[in-house]
Amino acid sequence: MNTYAAVCLSFTLAACPLLWAQENVAKRPLASKATRIESDAFLKVPAGLKADAFTVARTAPAIDVCFFEGLADRGKGTLWSSWGDGCLASNGKYYTSVGDHLGQNATSKVFEYDPVDMILRQIADVLEAIKQMFGLYGHGKIHAAIHEGADGKLYFATYWGKPKEVDAAFQKGFPGSILLSYDLKTGKVENHGAPVPKQGLPASHFDARRQLLYFHAVYKGDIAVYDVKEHKTRFVGGADESEASRTFLADANGRVYFSGTNGLHYYDPEKNEIVATKVNLPPNPGAKKKNDTLRAAAQCPTKNGIVYGMTAAGRLFAFDPAKESVKDLGPNWQNGDYTAVMVISPDEKFLYYAPGAHGSGAKSGAPVVQYDIAAGKRKVLAFLAEPLSQKLNYQVGGTYNLQIDGKGERLYFTFNGADPGARSPFGKPAVVVVNIPDSER
To answer: Fewer Cβ atoms within 10 Å of its own Cβ: the N or the C terminal residue of the chain?
Structure first.
């Protein structure tokens, strides 16, 4: 019997969840309300930037900022942070996640932001949901995205916070990343187990038409495909063909692309197999090794079948799956900056992103960039860093979350950040909503 099972059996079934609930009832976070900031300071260009490489909006957007309340210090190593993309659900609310980045007793939480009343509230705590006992290795991150299934549930996978402790945790029964769902109507959280046992799931994609969830599975490097309707894993493989393990890119035919050992490969849902292509993504001059691997992609292809993406080195590109051709659109920002998420506007005119996912964007003012597809030009809607520091005493970091509403009016981010002067750009995440002026779109 493994340690996980043995510990739980030493208590009654009723006592197992009670121990966790009693310990945390006083720590349940209250709902928090966003602060709206309207200032022309968002349009001020920081010193040292190559200003000829972009333009700046004429009208500053209203920016709503909401901090996560109740993220308690859980001891040495606590680093509340957000690593996986959120979801703008069919009910019009934005869902996002944070984790404490710990190993033993670690937990992650899912929050709901309502743009109407500008309220952020917690809807799920992983440790509580799975009734995990104290002393065991937990789920310190949600590194993949949150996805809404046709069944009205949000699906999300956990990830580990302290990787150096994972191997020992496996030997004691740690299952690896688990898949959870949250019912939007009932609020019930359900544990669907580990889709790929003893592996971590750091990135995902959802095929809404086929109700298929895609995951990168590490450390083996497999591609995993999970059928939401059947609640079972239908494919695991390709460990010797995949690389980077961070992003997927989907075409109009349901083929899901990822970085392979030699260019892009894809999973074919009709044939249930992985196929290699001869497509290579554009390199960024002077970038580090593996700079041409896929790192970000627009949520869907255009009506013409084109999919936009970025490399790990920050090279923007347009991919035509039918022709298996790639058009290099140049650096996403300055000389190219590591960027984890991007979206395309509903009218297909613009791409939006915030360069510098791991915090480097703050060095250039934390810009929110609008890329005009037809003109091939970059415009900054707002430089977030200085105004948020002055108005909210907040040191903004980078983001792994970005969603756009159905009218192209609002951008929903979850930024990592910290108190002013902190050495790390993590520890104090915040939901940031950019309300794009009509004149700027």
So the answer is: N
- Assess contact for 311 and 295: CB atoms under 8 A: yes
- Whole-number Å distance between alpha carbons of 346 and 357: 23
Structure tokens at 424: 């790390």
pLDDT in tens, 184-234: 999 999 999 999 999 999 999 999 999 999 999 999 999 999 999 999 999
Query: What percent helix, strand, coil does the chain show, rounded to 5?
Result: 15, 40, 50
Q: How far apart are CA 262 and CA 260, in angstroms?
A: 5
Give the domain ranges of the chain.
35-75+345-441
Contact 110, 97 (CB under 8 A): yes
Q: Tokens 């290795």 identify what position? A: 137
Q: Which of 160, 216, 156 minimizes the C-alpha distance to 190? A: 156
3-state secondary structure of 232: strand
Judging by DSSP bridges, how do beta strands 377-383 and 55-56 pair with one another? Answer: parallel
CB under 8 Å to 250, separation ≥6 — which residues?
205, 207, 256, 257, 297, 300, 301, 307
Closest CA to 310 of 287, 286, 285, 336: 336
15-42 confidence digits (pLDDT tens) = 334 344 444 444 555 799 999 999 999 9
